[in-house]
Design goal:
Blueprint lengths: L5 E3 L8 E3 L5 E3 L12 H18 L6 E2 L8 E6 L3 H9 L4 E4 L4 H8 L5 E5 L3 E3 L5 E8 L2 H5 L10 E6 L4 H11 L5 E6 L2 H9 L7 E5 L3 H15 L8 E21 L7 E8 L2 E6 L14 E6 L3 E4 L3 E4 L8 E6 L4 E23 L6 E7 L5 E3 L11 E3 L8 E6 L4 E2 L2 E2 L8
Parallel strand pairs: 5-6, 5-12, 6-7, 9-10, 10-11, 11-12
Antiparallel strand pairs: 1-2, 2-3, 4-5, 7-8, 8-9, 13-16, 13-20, 13-24, 14-15, 14-17, 14-19, 15-24, 17-18, 19-20, 20-21, 22-23, 25-26
GO molecular function, one term: 3-dehydroquinate synthase activity
InterPro entries: DHQS, DHQS/DOIS_N, DHQS_C
Organism: Acacia crassicarpa (northern wattle)
Length: about 425
Amino acid sequence: MSPLWNPVINFQNELPCFISSSAKIWTLSRRNPWHNFDSLSSIRSEKTQLRCTRCLSMASPSETSSFGTGKKSKRVWIWTKNKQVMTAAVERGWDTFVFSPQHRQLATDWSSIAVICPLFIGEGEILDGQSNRVATVFDVSTSDELERLRPEDEHAENIVVNLLDWQVIPAENIIAVFQSSQKTVFAISNNPSEAQIFLEALEHGLGGIVLKVEDVKPLLELKEYFDRRKEESNLLNLTKASVTRVHVAGMGDRVCVDLCSLMRPGEGLLVGSFARGLFLVHSECLELNYIASRPFRVNAGPVHAYVAVPGGKTCYLSELKAGKEVIVVNRLGQPRIAIVGRVKIETRQLILVEAKGHSDDETIYSIFLQNAETVALVGPSEGNTKSKAAVPVTSLKVGDEVLLRVQGGARHTGIEIQEFIVEN
């Protein structure tokens, strides 16, 4: 009796392994992906059929990428003839590949070295290895062609559009039409910039991307983009700290960061004099007596201070400029990514705030801020009570509690590294 094979997949560390009914475990290493199998051809055939059946019925975990809090995962298919692109894609969890009709042998060759789901594009449709229709393909270059694209007209679960002329407006129109449909709409993209347009159109974006490239770099850039967006679904751990010192320090060059997004009460940027501890500095979204609210602005601190940016990195406030991304965080630790629209550096009077965490660690965390009523730190939320979200630095006193993000202090070009470091 032949053994029963069940795929066990870990897409980050290993290629799949198969567990037999006799409890033997075989691992497919990247260097020797098919060693230890007696019947190689039958294993290839069975595992390919298992994977592609999953492609037909739903998005497999390996072809989806998270895209932030409250948003659906986005699906990614790769269209390439380049083996290096294939390898890089599989290593990053994208294993659904589109092949032109003349490259069927390439699909067979790649299936012998990696577990992939090969799809084949033809005239107006995409088929799997068993000639089942997986998607319908539309070329869109006119408004009439776009008007004919309707969710109720097609039988396939997936629709792939090739936008030959305009990109943004057609993508927005498609999203509006298909918003109540269960179908997934892919757009063919030749680079990460196009992909970003399709994934973010009308805020929700299309359901997936067919990345058509012959170079590894755009694939890596698209993966980095997804990794940045994935941060929005991960809560940051903010801890309470007690203020130990408040000291008027003198003049310095401080940075106002104006974003292309509006912030709400309790939101701000993570800033600190040392990367080991970043304070949650509140935005200027609150209504005050003498000045209008500016819900797009954070008066963040002096030029030397660190600010949290996507990718688990930091940069100096002096390095921020229009177009860069920063992480906006609320008092619950929920992050989102925002684009910097403008940076203003002006000389102002500064105040030094030092704080200590509630653990046994005696580490002191510090931040300089402009000494003004509009500048505030975020305090912790106390249960169900509506505690004050923003504590102005002008009224801050020893013993007050504020929120900060504790992390590794050693940094190289903003990336956390493991090394001995002393900062005072």
